[in-house]
Amino acid sequence: MWQLSKRILIIVTAPFLFIGAWFLYSGFTAEPDMYTGSTLSNFYYMMGGMFIILPLVLAGVIFLVIKKINTRKIYLAQNGIRGEAEILSLEQTGIYINNLPQIRFQLQVNLPNRDPYQIEHKETVNLISLNSLNIGAKFPVFVDPVNPEKVLLLFNSRLEF
Fold first, then answer.
1. Same domain membership, residue 87 and residue 70
2. Same domain, yes or no, for 25 and 62?
């Protein structure tokens, strides 16, 4: 399961919030420009707002994306049909997410009381788990009861949250 460290989030966003607060303070204390009659405070207010609002919005979006990914995994682990998936083929897609390779699997999914079926599934794989991924290898899987194309692979035969 993906985790978002609150400490890292604070370390990353705090400098932007302090800079934004400084811009807002500078906007209150800025004197009017003697040539144009407008104040530099408008610029400071805009910059302060940007430095405060944008990092908070970005942090919120990151939080929601991670929550959605984790909610999907929890849903499949709790409500999914447990079965077994056999690797028919696998290849790297060329995409790396957090220095982890994304693998495209061709899987045959075997569920109790259902006919086996094949799906294509993409997933980032931990580097430690890569050596256990061979054609013909079988792994436990949770399958969405509503959409059998959605699966949660368990590479280590246990739920990795």
1. no
2. yes
Are 106 and 68 members of one domain? no
Nearest to 133 by CA among 116, 156, 99, 110: 156
pLDDT tens-digit profile of 122-134? 988 888 878 878 8
Distances in whole angstroms, Cα of residue 83 to Cα of each of 42, 80, 103, 119, 138: 61, 9, 20, 14, 10
Q: What is the pTM assigned to this prediction?
A: 0.60
Cβ atoms of residues 153 and 84 within 8 Å: no
Both tokens of 84, joined, read: 């077994």
Pairing of strands 138-143, 117-124: unpaired
Alpha-carbon distance of 77 to 149, in angstroms, equals 15
Q: Are 1 and 161 in contact (CB under 8 A)?
A: yes
96 within domain boundaries = yes
pLDDT of the residue at 4: 64
Q: Which domain holds residue 63?
A: 6-77
Both tokens assigned to 89? 């083929």
Backbone angles phi, psi at 126, to 5 degrees: -60, 140
